[in-house]
Amino acid sequence: MGRHVVGVATDLPPGTNKILLLEGRSVGVFNVNGTYSALKNSCPHQGAPLCVGKVTGMTLPSNPGQYLYGREGEILRCPWHGWEFDITNGKSIFDPHKCLVKTYEVAVEADADAEETPSVETYTVKVEGAKLVVYI
């Protein structure tokens, strides 16, 4: 897969995502607590548009009678049948070793154009008749 600039990092704040078409593939890009992840927008179960599903958390291992909830914003639920996947690595919650969603590398790169260029103080110069005039 080639390199694709898909936007400015600040345009995708934590807890948001966007779906893009890259090289003919539908890809969801997510900001999970300041870390960016990208997943193929297709559930391995029946090909549902996975990345339009609900982003949520999950119950965590706990003692009997306790219900601990965590990982808010890290779990993506398929909109068709409710299968759940870890956005950060594409692994399914129910069978992380066999059922996965394709993931893609995401990087935040410095914008060379945005680097501060040194400036020089300038003044307006105007020719008035034969005189050279500088306005400060």
TrEMBL record:
Keywords: 2Fe-2S, Iron, Iron-sulfur, Metal-binding. Residues 3-115 form the Rieske domain. InterPro entries: Rieske_2Fe-2S, Rieske_2Fe-2S_sf. Pfam families: Rieske. Coiled coil: none annotated. This is Rieske (2Fe-2S) protein. It comes from Paenibacillus agricola.
